[in-house]
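Morning!

As promised:
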Amino acid sequence: MFFEVEGITKTYGGLTANNNINLKIEQGSIAGLIGPNGAGKSTLFKIISGFIVPDRGSVRFKGKSLTRLSPHVICNCGIACTFQDVKNFPQLDVFETIQVGAYCRHTFKRQAASRAREVMIFLDLIDQKDQKIVKLNMLDRKKVALAAALATDPDLLLLDELFAGCTPTEVSSLLLTLKKINQELGITLFIIEHVLKVIMSTCQLVFVLDDGTVIESGTPEQICMSKKVISAYLGEDYDASQHQ
Ligand SMILES: Nc1ncnc2c1ncn2[C@@H]1O[C@H](COP(=O)(O)OP(=O)(O)OP(=O)(O)O)[C@@H](O)[C@H]1O
Ligand SMILES: [Mg+2]
Protein backbone atom coordinates (compact mmCIF):
# COMPACT_ATOMS: atom_id res chain seq x y z
CA MET A 1 0.00 0.00 0.00
CA PHE A 2 1.23 3.50 -0.90
CA PHE A 3 0.20 5.15 2.37
CA GLU A 4 -1.29 3.63 5.50
CA VAL A 5 -2.11 4.84 9.00
CA GLU A 6 -2.77 2.11 11.55
CA GLY A 7 -4.13 2.50 15.07
CA ILE A 8 -2.90 6.06 15.56
CA THR A 9 -3.78 7.33 19.03
CA LYS A 10 -2.75 10.59 20.69
CA THR A 11 -3.98 11.88 24.04
CA TYR A 12 -3.45 15.18 25.83
CA GLY A 13 -4.19 14.47 29.50
CA GLY A 14 -7.81 13.33 29.52
CA LEU A 15 -8.46 14.43 25.92
CA THR A 16 -8.12 11.91 23.10
CA ALA A 17 -7.24 13.96 20.01
CA ASN A 18 -6.77 10.87 17.79
CA ASN A 19 -8.44 7.62 18.76
CA ASN A 20 -7.25 4.46 16.96
CA ILE A 21 -7.24 6.00 13.47
CA ASN A 22 -6.89 3.64 10.49
CA LEU A 23 -6.82 4.77 6.88
CA LYS A 24 -5.27 3.92 3.51
CA ILE A 25 -4.63 6.12 0.50
CA GLU A 26 -3.87 4.97 -3.05
CA GLN A 27 -1.02 6.47 -5.05
CA GLY A 28 -2.10 9.21 -7.47
CA SER A 29 -5.43 9.85 -5.74
CA ILE A 30 -6.87 12.85 -3.90
CA ALA A 31 -8.19 12.04 -0.42
CA GLY A 32 -9.99 14.37 1.97
CA LEU A 33 -10.23 14.66 5.75
CA ILE A 34 -13.19 16.55 7.17
CA GLY A 35 -14.87 16.96 10.54
CA PRO A 36 -15.90 19.55 13.12
CA ASN A 37 -13.47 21.94 14.82
CA GLY A 38 -11.34 20.09 17.34
CA ALA A 39 -12.03 16.68 15.73
CA GLY A 40 -8.29 15.92 15.55
CA LYS A 41 -7.56 16.55 11.85
CA SER A 42 -4.48 18.77 12.25
CA THR A 43 -3.18 16.47 14.99
CA LEU A 44 -3.22 13.57 12.53
CA PHE A 45 -1.35 15.59 9.87
CA LYS A 46 1.26 16.65 12.45
CA ILE A 47 1.71 13.00 13.45
CA ILE A 48 2.09 11.92 9.82
CA SER A 49 4.67 14.65 9.15
CA GLY A 50 6.61 13.91 12.35
CA PHE A 51 5.88 17.06 14.38
CA ILE A 52 3.91 15.11 17.01
CA VAL A 53 4.82 11.64 18.26
CA PRO A 54 1.73 9.43 18.71
CA ASP A 55 1.11 7.39 21.87
CA ARG A 56 0.34 4.34 19.74
CA GLY A 57 0.03 3.28 16.12
CA SER A 58 2.08 3.43 12.95
CA VAL A 59 2.39 5.32 9.69
CA ARG A 60 3.68 3.43 6.64
CA PHE A 61 4.68 5.05 3.37
CA LYS A 62 5.87 3.19 0.26
CA GLY A 63 6.54 0.09 2.34
CA LYS A 64 8.53 1.88 5.03
CA SER A 65 7.58 2.71 8.62
CA LEU A 66 7.76 6.45 9.36
CA THR A 67 6.77 6.15 13.00
CA ARG A 68 9.00 8.26 15.28
CA LEU A 69 11.13 9.63 12.44
CA SER A 70 11.82 13.37 12.60
CA PRO A 71 10.07 15.86 10.26
CA HIS A 72 13.05 16.48 7.97
CA VAL A 73 13.57 12.72 7.49
CA ILE A 74 9.89 12.24 6.69
CA CYS A 75 10.06 15.13 4.21
CA ASN A 76 13.06 13.44 2.63
CA CYS A 77 11.00 10.25 2.29
CA GLY A 78 8.56 12.21 0.11
CA ILE A 79 5.86 13.67 2.36
CA ALA A 80 5.41 17.46 2.50
CA CYS A 81 2.85 19.46 4.45
CA THR A 82 1.37 22.95 4.45
CA PHE A 83 0.06 24.11 7.82
CA GLN A 84 -3.26 25.56 8.89
CA ASP A 85 -1.56 28.66 10.28
CA VAL A 86 0.66 29.56 7.33
CA LYS A 87 3.97 30.59 8.88
CA ASN A 88 6.26 31.87 6.15
CA PHE A 89 9.54 33.59 6.95
CA PRO A 90 8.55 37.29 6.94
CA GLN A 91 12.09 38.50 6.25
CA LEU A 92 12.49 36.36 3.10
CA ASP A 93 11.13 37.03 -0.37
CA VAL A 94 9.12 34.57 -2.46
CA PHE A 95 12.12 33.13 -4.30
CA GLU A 96 14.14 32.60 -1.10
CA THR A 97 11.18 31.00 0.70
CA ILE A 98 10.67 28.45 -2.06
CA GLN A 99 14.40 27.70 -2.11
CA VAL A 100 14.17 26.66 1.56
CA GLY A 101 11.96 23.78 0.37
CA ALA A 102 14.28 22.95 -2.50
CA TYR A 103 17.24 22.46 -0.12
CA CYS A 104 15.51 19.26 0.99
CA ARG A 105 16.83 17.64 -2.22
CA HIS A 106 19.68 19.91 -3.31
CA THR A 107 22.91 20.75 -1.54
CA PHE A 108 24.06 23.62 -3.74
CA LYS A 109 22.44 27.05 -4.00
CA ARG A 110 22.42 27.03 -7.79
CA GLN A 111 20.45 23.74 -7.91
CA ALA A 112 18.03 24.89 -5.20
CA ALA A 113 17.49 28.18 -7.08
CA SER A 114 16.85 26.34 -10.33
CA ARG A 115 14.28 24.05 -8.66
CA ALA A 116 12.60 27.07 -6.99
CA ARG A 117 12.37 28.80 -10.39
CA GLU A 118 10.68 25.75 -11.94
CA VAL A 119 8.09 25.68 -9.15
CA MET A 120 7.45 29.44 -9.43
CA ILE A 121 6.77 29.03 -13.15
CA PHE A 122 4.49 26.05 -12.52
CA LEU A 123 2.45 27.97 -9.91
CA ASP A 124 2.52 31.29 -11.79
CA LEU A 125 4.45 33.08 -9.05
CA ILE A 126 7.34 34.35 -11.13
CA ASP A 127 6.08 37.98 -11.20
CA GLN A 128 6.12 38.06 -7.37
CA LYS A 129 9.61 36.51 -7.20
CA ASP A 130 11.25 39.41 -5.32
CA GLN A 131 8.28 40.38 -3.13
CA LYS A 132 8.64 40.08 0.63
CA ILE A 133 6.12 37.60 2.00
CA VAL A 134 4.50 40.25 4.24
CA LYS A 135 3.54 42.26 1.13
CA LEU A 136 1.58 39.40 -0.44
CA ASN A 137 -2.18 38.92 -0.39
CA MET A 138 -3.67 35.81 1.24
CA LEU A 139 -3.92 33.80 -2.00
CA ASP A 140 -0.28 34.42 -2.93
CA ARG A 141 0.91 33.61 0.61
CA LYS A 142 -0.88 30.29 0.36
CA LYS A 143 0.60 29.66 -3.07
CA VAL A 144 4.09 30.35 -1.69
CA ALA A 145 3.52 27.85 1.14
CA LEU A 146 2.32 25.36 -1.46
CA ALA A 147 5.33 26.16 -3.66
CA ALA A 148 7.81 25.63 -0.81
CA ALA A 149 6.20 22.24 -0.12
CA LEU A 150 6.27 21.34 -3.83
CA ALA A 151 9.93 22.32 -4.06
CA THR A 152 10.74 19.41 -1.72
CA ASP A 153 9.58 17.07 -4.56
CA PRO A 154 6.96 15.17 -2.54
CA ASP A 155 5.07 12.06 -3.59
CA LEU A 156 2.39 12.83 -1.00
CA LEU A 157 1.31 16.36 -0.19
CA LEU A 158 -0.72 17.11 2.97
CA LEU A 159 -2.66 20.37 2.82
CA ASP A 160 -4.24 21.61 6.06
CA GLU A 161 -7.00 24.12 5.23
CA LEU A 162 -5.17 25.68 2.33
CA PHE A 163 -8.39 27.35 1.20
CA ALA A 164 -9.33 28.96 4.54
CA GLY A 165 -9.85 32.72 4.22
CA CYS A 166 -9.95 32.67 0.40
CA THR A 167 -12.71 34.33 -1.64
CA PRO A 168 -14.85 32.13 -3.95
CA THR A 169 -12.79 33.31 -6.96
CA GLU A 170 -9.56 32.43 -5.13
CA VAL A 171 -11.00 29.03 -4.19
CA SER A 172 -11.73 28.30 -7.88
CA SER A 173 -8.22 29.38 -8.89
CA LEU A 174 -6.52 27.27 -6.17
CA LEU A 175 -8.72 24.30 -7.08
CA LEU A 176 -7.39 24.34 -10.64
CA THR A 177 -3.86 24.50 -9.25
CA LEU A 178 -4.47 21.45 -7.04
CA LYS A 179 -5.86 19.44 -9.94
CA LYS A 180 -2.81 20.41 -12.01
CA ILE A 181 -0.47 19.26 -9.22
CA ASN A 182 -2.29 15.93 -9.03
CA GLN A 183 -2.74 15.30 -12.75
CA GLU A 184 0.41 16.78 -14.28
CA LEU A 185 2.90 15.96 -11.51
CA GLY A 186 1.21 12.75 -10.32
CA ILE A 187 1.41 13.87 -6.69
CA THR A 188 -1.01 12.21 -4.27
CA LEU A 189 -2.96 14.76 -2.22
CA PHE A 190 -4.46 14.43 1.25
CA ILE A 191 -6.43 17.53 2.15
CA ILE A 192 -8.14 18.87 5.26
CA GLU A 193 -10.82 21.34 4.31
CA HIS A 194 -13.90 23.06 5.70
CA VAL A 195 -14.61 24.50 2.22
CA LEU A 196 -16.73 21.54 1.14
CA LYS A 197 -16.76 22.51 -2.54
CA VAL A 198 -13.07 21.60 -2.58
CA ILE A 199 -13.63 18.17 -1.03
CA MET A 200 -16.69 17.36 -3.10
CA SER A 201 -15.18 18.37 -6.43
CA THR A 202 -11.71 16.83 -6.06
CA CYS A 203 -11.62 13.85 -3.69
CA GLN A 204 -12.10 10.22 -4.65
CA LEU A 205 -12.15 9.19 -0.99
CA VAL A 206 -13.14 11.16 2.10
CA PHE A 207 -12.53 10.33 5.77
CA VAL A 208 -14.70 11.96 8.42
CA LEU A 209 -13.27 12.53 11.90
CA ASP A 210 -15.36 13.32 14.93
CA ASP A 211 -14.01 13.48 18.45
CA GLY A 212 -10.74 11.87 17.38
CA THR A 213 -12.43 8.90 15.68
CA VAL A 214 -13.02 8.10 11.99
CA ILE A 215 -16.81 7.85 11.91
CA GLU A 216 -17.16 7.36 8.15
CA SER A 217 -15.18 6.97 4.92
CA GLY A 218 -16.27 6.76 1.31
CA THR A 219 -16.80 8.75 -1.86
CA PRO A 220 -18.07 12.34 -1.50
CA GLU A 221 -21.53 11.12 -2.56
CA GLN A 222 -21.55 8.40 0.15
CA ILE A 223 -20.33 10.88 2.76
CA CYS A 224 -23.12 13.33 1.93
CA MET A 225 -25.72 10.60 2.41
CA SER A 226 -24.33 9.31 5.72
CA LYS A 227 -26.62 9.96 8.67
CA LYS A 228 -23.61 9.90 11.03
CA VAL A 229 -21.82 12.59 9.00
CA ILE A 230 -24.94 14.73 8.63
CA SER A 231 -25.48 14.55 12.37
CA ALA A 232 -21.83 15.17 13.39
CA TYR A 233 -20.74 17.68 10.77
CA LEU A 234 -22.80 18.57 7.70
CA GLY A 235 -26.11 19.32 9.42
CA GLU A 236 -29.65 18.46 8.28
CA ASP A 237 -29.77 21.50 5.97
CA TYR A 238 -26.72 20.50 3.97
CA ASP A 239 -27.49 20.57 0.24
CA ALA A 240 -25.09 18.23 -1.57
CA SER A 241 -26.26 19.41 -5.01
CA GLN A 242 -24.68 22.86 -4.49
CA HIS A 243 -21.21 21.32 -4.91
CA GLN A 244 -21.85 19.04 -7.89
N1 LIG B 1 -0.72 20.68 22.11
C1 LIG B 1 -1.95 20.42 22.55
N2 LIG B 1 -2.21 20.32 23.87
C2 LIG B 1 -3.45 20.03 24.33
N3 LIG B 1 -4.52 19.84 23.53
C3 LIG B 1 -4.33 19.93 22.21
C4 LIG B 1 -3.03 20.23 21.64
N4 LIG B 1 -3.16 20.25 20.28
C5 LIG B 1 -4.45 19.99 20.02
N5 LIG B 1 -5.14 19.80 21.17
C6 LIG B 1 -6.58 19.47 21.26
O1 LIG B 1 -6.79 18.31 20.47
C7 LIG B 1 -8.06 18.40 19.82
C8 LIG B 1 -7.86 18.22 18.33
O2 LIG B 1 -7.21 19.40 17.82
P1 LIG B 1 -6.88 19.58 16.27
O3 LIG B 1 -6.14 20.86 16.13
O4 LIG B 1 -6.24 18.36 15.77
O5 LIG B 1 -8.36 19.70 15.65
P2 LIG B 1 -8.83 20.04 14.17
O6 LIG B 1 -9.75 18.95 13.74
O7 LIG B 1 -7.65 20.32 13.31
O8 LIG B 1 -9.70 21.37 14.39
P3 LIG B 1 -9.90 22.66 13.45
O9 LIG B 1 -10.92 22.27 12.40
O10 LIG B 1 -10.44 23.70 14.38
O11 LIG B 1 -8.57 23.03 12.87
C9 LIG B 1 -8.67 19.75 20.22
O12 LIG B 1 -9.55 19.54 21.30
C10 LIG B 1 -7.47 20.55 20.65
O13 LIG B 1 -7.83 21.53 21.59
MG1 LIG C 1 -6.98 21.96 12.31
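The longest strand covers residues 15-25.

Hope this helps with the figure draft.
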